[in-house]
Each structure stands twice: as structure tokens, then as C-alpha cells.
């Protein structure tokens, strides 16, 4: 089977009822990736990315999804990238890491830059997973263990950036046995035109691609009182 055939099948919309079953709240979690003030806030270290996240409406849709998750019993995890002031434990083995060290805004532990950005709501039951190293919000962090303990089999992945962290999270989730769901209008990257290309040519091959509204609608249709302990880990 050719890659073109795979791609044409991958971009075919999933049957509505199949998506509802996939997104049942008791076996699903929502991950927000680097939706922090120092990345997508008004004082971002990456103003071009922050502008795209706001102007595209992606950050607003992340906020809507988080609110919908709170209303329907879906577990929310916020993945935050940060650094110690002394840089101890941080990677330096790629140009991106070395560039981050020179940025005027640093994602320092305990600073305002690593707080979840407005308008994304944070509830007491949300889990915040912080990392000091690497490119992925999943590899080498607590995300996998937390999802398994919660009985989650489906992970909805949102946030930034479509250039690096989002595809990294999708690949890691799939490799660990989870089903990845990507609301394509709730992620952002630079330039803005890159995101739909990444979705079409890469993410659609390994994840269920949908919209934020469809995810929220599925949660509302299938909402139940969570009983996560009865769901086997992947």
C-alpha cells in the first residue's frame, strides 16, 4: 500500500458514532501542551507563535475544550515546559535548546512565564505536568503513568506548537498504545500555513483528526460520571 493511499484513507472523516465511542469521558483525557504565559501569553518568548495561537482562535478553542472537559468529567492535564535558573538538567543537544537560552523571556520554574495562560481555565482536579528537559510533553514525564492510573485510553492533544511539541506528543502517545485525537483548530504553529500541512501529511496518518467543537459535542453526548478505576490501562 502506498503512502498516498494511506494518506487518502487517513483524512477520511471517522464515522460520527465511532468518534463518540472513542471520546467517552470515562476513558479519555485532554492534554494542553505549553499553553503557558511565557509561550502564548502577552509577554511570550515566542511572539510570532503567540500571535498565531491567538489570531487563529486556537488558544480560545483550547480554553473551550478545557471548560467542556471540566463540565463532562474528562480529566485535564496541562503540560508545561520550564527551566531551572541555572539550567541544570536542560538539553543543549539541538539548535532549538541553545536558542531558548538566548531568549529575553525564560520559562523559569516558579515564574509567571510557566503559569497557564488566559483564557485557559484551570480547575482543582486538573493535573499539571512540568518538564525540565526534552521536546515532548510525554516522553520522560509523568503523563504516561498518570494516564494509566486514571484508566485513560484516548488522549486529546491540543496547544503548541505544531512544529515540534504537538507531533512529538502524538507520536509518543501512539507508541505507548493510546489513541491520539487532534482537534486541528486547537493547535497552532509557525508559520500559520504550516499547521494544516502538518495535520494533512503527518498527523492524519497516526491520529484521529477532528475539530474542537466536535470533541466537545461528543463529550456532551456521552458524558457519564467517571469511574476510571474500572477501565484497563493500555
UniProtKB/TrEMBL annotation:
The keyword Transferase does not apply. Residues 28-214 form the Isochorismatase-like domain. CDD domains: cysteine_hydrolases (cd00431). It comes from the Bacteria. Gene3D superfamilies: Isochorismatase-like (3.40.50.850). This is Cysteine hydrolase. Pfam families: Isochorismatase. Keywords: Hydrolase. It comes from Streptomyces malaysiensis subsp. samsunensis. GO terms for molecular function: hydrolase activity.
Amino acid at each position: 500500500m502506498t503512502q498516498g493511499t494511506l494518506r487518502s484513507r487517513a483524512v477520511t472523516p471517522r464515522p460520527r458514532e465511532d468518534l463518540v465511542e472513542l471520546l467517552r469521558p470515562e476513558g479519555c483525557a485532554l492534554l494542553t501542551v505549553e499553553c503557558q504565559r511565557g509561550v502564548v501569553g502577552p509577554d511570550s518568548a515566542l511572539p510570532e507563535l503567540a500571535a498565531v495561537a491567538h489570531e487563529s482562535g486556537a488558544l480560545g478553542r483550547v480554553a473551550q475544550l478545557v471548560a467542556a472537559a471540566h463540565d463532562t468529567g474528562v480529566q485535564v492535564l496541562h503540560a508545561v515546559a520550564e527551566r531551572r535558573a541555572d539550567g541544570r538538567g536542560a538539553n543543549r543537544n539541538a539548535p532549538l535548546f541553545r536558542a531558548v537560552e538566548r531568549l529575553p523571556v525564560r520559562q523559569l520554574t516558579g515564574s509567571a512565564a510557566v503559569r497557564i495562560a488566559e483564557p485557559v481555565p484551570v480547575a482543582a482536579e486538573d493535573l499539571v505536568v512540568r518538564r525540565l528537559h526534552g521536546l515532548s510533553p510525554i516522553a520522560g514525564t509523568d503523563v504516561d503513568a498518570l494516564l494509566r492510573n486514571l484508566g485513560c485510553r484516548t488522549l486529546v492533544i491540543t496547544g503548541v506548537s505544531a512544529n515540534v511539541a504537538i507531533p512529538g506528543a502524538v507520536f509518543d502517545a501512539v507508541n505507548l498504545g493510546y489513541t491520539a485525537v487532534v482537534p486541528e483548530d486547537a493547535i497552532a504553529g509557525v508559520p500559520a500555513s504550516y499547521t494544516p500541512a502538518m495535520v494533512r501529511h503527518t498527523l492524519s496518518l497516526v491520529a484521529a483528526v477532528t475539530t474542537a467543537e466536535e470533541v466537545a459535542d461528543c463529550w456532551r453526548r456521552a458524558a457519564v460520571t467517571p469511574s476510571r478505576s474500572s477501565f484497563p490501562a493500555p
